[in-house]
Amino acid sequence: MSRITARLAVVAGLAAACGTAQAATLTVTPGPDAQERLQTALLDAKPGDTVQIAAGRYDLTDGLSLDVDGVTVAGAGPGATVLSFKGQKGAGEGLLITSDRVTVKDLAVEDTRGDGIKSKGADDIRYLNLRVEWTGGPKETNGAYGVYPVASERVLIDGVVVRGASDAGIYVGQSKHIIVRNSRAEFNVAGIEIENSMFADVHDNVATRNAGGILVFDLPNLPQMGGHSTRVFRNWVVDNDTPNFAPKGNIVAGVPTGTGVMVMANRNVHVFENEISGNQSAGVLLVSYTQAFNDPTYNPLPRDIVVRANRIGRNGWGPKFPGGPEIAKALGGPLPPVVWDGVRASGGRPAEVRVNLADGPVLNLNLPGPGRMDAAAPTVAATISDAAIAEPPAVSLDAAGK
Amino acid sequence: MRRRLVLLAALLGLGAASSPPGVDLDLVLQEAPAPRLSDYRLFVDESADRPNGRVVPYTLATPLFTDHAEKSRLVFTPPGARIGYTATGVLDFPVGAVLVKTFAYPADLRRPDRDVRKVETRLLIHKASGWTAQTYVWNAEGTAAVLKRAGARLPVRFTDLQGREVALDYAVPNQNQCKTCHQVDGALSPLGPKARNLNHEVALAGGGRTNQLERWRRAGLLDGAPPPAARPHLAAWDDPRQSLDARARAYLDVNCAHCHSPSGSASNSGLFLTAEETRPSALGVGKPPVAAGRGAGDLAVGIDPGHPERSILAFRMASGEPGVMMPELGRALIHEEGVALIRDWIRAMPAQAPPGG
After folding, report:
1. Portion 21-60 of A in contact with B at CB < 8 A
2. Cβ(A337)–Cβ(A308) under 8 Å?
């Protein structure tokens, strides 16, 4: 073989290798058959590829779905690329993602019949610069969640705007290692909700005009329980005043209209350096799970809770939870900004509950058990400090470190 | 000796000029799907009415409700290969096996064999790398079916069993939606052909009846089956001779449990409706909704024993609205008979404990 031929063969080999590994961009434009063309691109994409959705409005009739690892789905901006599901005839969400290492960015999803964008079992998912909106304003008939990552590890939500969700605008459930930042949730029942999850940082977000601003919950009888280690900091949790419009059976239907931050049955939750004002029920509400449950491994009490260094304005002037108005009347003024149910026993036995509530004053309802408002013995303290409670480390989304 | 070989070859259909070629196994096993259904030679005629050799029909005791479509099911096994028996889960189909399901609408459901329009034929193919799902949509003449990967909506009209005219936007699923239901621990899998759902009597072409699994075993298709009495059995949901509880649980297993199981798409709900589930709260008894949104319909629990009108399970089955209705894929119409069964089952539950719980 001559030297030139050998060199050509090497070049050809390199080109072939690059050809197979090179990321492709599959571009979709508006127009007829957009549903089929967009879904086909989501099926054809290979790991590393980008499905680029050009600016314009896409009127879709069915849910879209992606099941290929390592794909980026990108629009031309949340004001420019609009996926409208007003005419949706089927599927439980607008876009469903079931593969790992997916990024969805720079687009809007409007008026889905169920959830907006859902990802399940999708590790290393990134939701960036998105808008999910029900354009008719807050209504009970709107879909439940705007963005809905669930059962996933390493979740990033950054620069996402959600309006009108009949449950939570930004909801992360049964997941681990989560960051929600630089996002805006308004006119939802719950603005941002972290549920049955571990290691979450919720920071530099705006939660306003919802019924409740930011929620950290844990619920029984689910595959992942025992939520813990969430930090809620530097958020603007102001004027959450939309009357709760959730369908009755949902857990968020129990969120009092005008709640800033609410923690229910979770462990090691730190709320600090937030701006919290204009919430008529409570600035920060710490409560137990009050419904019956038969799961012996479930702990219904909030514990290891820290509330410190928040800027707290006017809150609690018209509490919407049962017994609230009576207590406000007895106190002769608005409720203190931090309200705790004071439950320190579970199932009739004392439970290890520690709180460090440095932002006062604090209203302690001193309930003998979850939901026992009938036996409330409210007291007001400047602060309540059981112990120093170590803050969880900053969340890392680095897969190698886990 | 040679004469005997020739005779054997003729019996097996080998080299006989008059018999058509068999199923194209190379095409079945290749990674990319064929563009046309006919390419696989699963049928000997273009309208797919006559199955090729080694392609045998089967039925399920309780099938999934799919907007009243008539479904015909066939299974192909490659020459020399057998299906392995398993007591739980889907039977162990060999590589090269193809499950073929054609969805069709008679003009009038009361005359199911007249004026039948085929809509789509779905294939589940067991490749060397695992199962794949594809669907082929029929043309209006019913003479050719072509690959459709991204889903479609097709207008369908028929007269139902009560004589009512029904118009429907039939949904052909996209390839990912196939997997949303056909999924066990993230991998694609068949759903229907489990021993328990195949273990029932079927009519024979030449008259008479026989047990379907026994028929497969005798034909050399099925390996390792225990004696008939040791095989599990799923009730037929619409057989009034079987108990209400067995029929309801069979219905939920087939219509809901492909997602609502610990390894299915709805695992995060904690609502598990498999035939094996015994925990009342996992079945929905006294269980509050988790992520149901407006699907909860202002109701507090999945099942309120004795009260179907207060049970989210029955509420979502009785809805035709996306975002509320369950299942969320595979139907646009309400299965009134199925809803009635589940309502009866909930109504019959004692207020304190669920049946069998």
Report:
1. 35-37, 39-40, 42-43
2. no
